[in-house]
Amino acid sequence: MATQHSRSAARLMMAPAVVLLLGWMLIPLSMTVFFSFKKFLPMRGDSMANGLDWVGFDNYARFISSSAFWPSVQATLVLVGGVLLVTIVLGVALAMLLDQPMWGQGVVRILVIAPFFVMPTVSALVWKNLFMDPVNGFFAHVWRSVGATPIEWLSQASLPSLVLIVSWQWLPFATLILLTAFQSLDQEQLEAAEMDGARWPQRFVFIVLPHLSRAITVVLLIQTIFLLSIFAEIFVTTQGSFGTKTLTYLIYQRVLESQNVGLGSAGGVYAIILANIVAIFLMRIVGKNLDA
Amino acid sequence: MARAVTTRRKALNTAIAWAIGLLIFFPILWIIIMSFKSEGDAIKAPLDVLTSAWTFENYGVVQERSNYSRHFFNSVLLAFGSTLLGLIVAVPAAWAMAFVPSKRTKDILLWMLSTKMLPAVGVLYPIYLLFIQLGLLDSRAGLVIVLMLINLPIIVWMLYTYFREIPGEILEAARMDGANLRKEILYVLTPMAIPGMASTVLLNIILAWNEAFWTLNLTAAKAAPLTAFIASYSSPEGLFYAKLSAASVMAIAPILVMGWFSQKQLVRGLTFGAVK
């Protein structure tokens, strides 16, 4: 039984972490919300010391009505949706394969997981130059060798190229989690179904997929949160051109490149709300597991 | 019971799995190969690249021209510094939550995790402004603090799950035998907690090493770790395939090795226990 004494000691021990995270969350967040209601153009002499003009919801309205907004929503949806589709479909297939008996399973697993540990700037730059460069890249050489004209990947097929790069980075994560789920699959249940005459597709749809559904949901939610804030991959490849300006990148440009802090902050608030909607679902699953 | 599998089936699995594994690993393999080629050979057709002469010179040139070791040192300092600092803050918190749980423990834990979901770009300008005001822009100290804060929820979470696996009866037994709180932590808890703490440290070093939002936006020449240094190769003037490859290999090799040891922790640390 915890005593009164140990309770107050526990509170004291939690205090630094709680205070730090509270500060980390509240201070910048309230500043962003504050800026989002202000006209704040540091390059044109606006500064906090001189006071900032209150503009109400102007920034919020202008962020949404700007010509860059809908294309950025579209780019975000294609990038996030594309990567989710690729990583989850291939992840399920790969996890199923890795769960089968084979020689050198450990080594294969290491090969498959490796891309996750490559830093984003390295993987984006390597894909951009060593593979997708229209003159000297690996793909260009392959295309020429079969007599085809090399594709300018990052300008002609910019979003699919980014989906490929980011999927390569995140496929290991999806695979590893789905593999964990596969390993807790009840083999006897599968065998029983097989003996009852269920064919492979039926076994997959009615036994395997339901078993995986929670792992898939978790991969979906966690990846969505991380993918919504993809930055480095765009920063070193297209810098947001050729239709790759996602919501995150648009906000970054508004805030740091064109230094329209008020407008960018309004965008930031939208991004925070969006991420929180996804986070609520994830937290619900995590919370349920905590009770179990 | 394990299913009986024919040798033929197993051979087929092996062939397919190895083919796919090598395909996924191929870009990394290609970087490694390219890093040992001369610039002239590196832009040739793939088969010619393979048959051309091997050289170590890129590794020397990268270091000489760009002060590579400085950025490497920055990465080491940021990754280890932020993890150590995070551990100092997180161990007491996780200990308290695991061993003296109250009604609010679960809410606090979930709230901590939720701070991890805050999109960085949403608070970019405030942090940028604070860094300017405090003179922390392009400083290693500032980044150590930011990296510590963004990974703190994961550190607390992982430690909590590991600590909870330590049976409470052992602590009670130690208490009965007259151990005070300090002794309890030092002689009973620590030895049992070390494996979990080691995994936590490993995963967080990896995450901090590869972090590429704050490191890109809050550093310039001085405090830039490898993530930002490599990004400087994206300008066309600095573009050399073989040297880019050599710099990349040096940047990812240490973490690749650590990563292979942390496969299990990865699932635990990044899914917040939602998948078991």
Automatic annotation (TrEMBL), chain A:
How this chain sits in the membrane, per its record, is: Multi-pass membrane protein
The organism sits in which domain of life?
Answer: Bacteria
> Which PROSITE patterns does the annotation name?
ABC_TM1
Task: Tell me the compartments it is located in.
Answer: Cell membrane
**Which keywords belong to this entry?**
Cell membrane, Membrane, Transmembrane, Transmembrane helix, Transport
Q: In its keyword annotation, does this UniProt entry include Iron?
A: no
Presence of the UniProt keyword Glycoprotein in the record: no
Write out the transmembrane intervals.
12-37, 75-98, 110-127, 204-232, 267-286
State the family it belongs to: Belongs to the binding-protein-dependent transport system permease family.
The name on file for this protein is: Sugar ABC transporter permease
Task: Give the species this sequence originates from.
Answer: Sinisalibacter lacisalsi
- Name the gene for this chain: smoF
From TrEMBL, chain B:
Q: Where located?
A: Cell membrane
State the species of origin.
Sinisalibacter lacisalsi
Keywords on record: Cell membrane, Membrane, Transmembrane, Transmembrane helix, Transport
What membrane topology does this protein have?
A: Multi-pass membrane protein
Task: State the protein's name.
Answer: Mannitol ABC transporter permease
Record-stated family: Belongs to the binding-protein-dependent transport system permease family.
User: Principal place where this protein is found?
Assistant: membrane
> Which stretches make up the ABC transmembrane type-1 domain?
72-262
Q: Which gene encodes it?
A: smoG
Can you tell me where the transmembrane regions are? Answer: 12-33, 72-96, 108-131, 143-163, 184-209, 240-261
Taxonomic superkingdom: Bacteria
Q: SUPFAM superfamilies, per this entry?
A: MetI-like
The keyword Iron-sulfur is assigned to this record: no
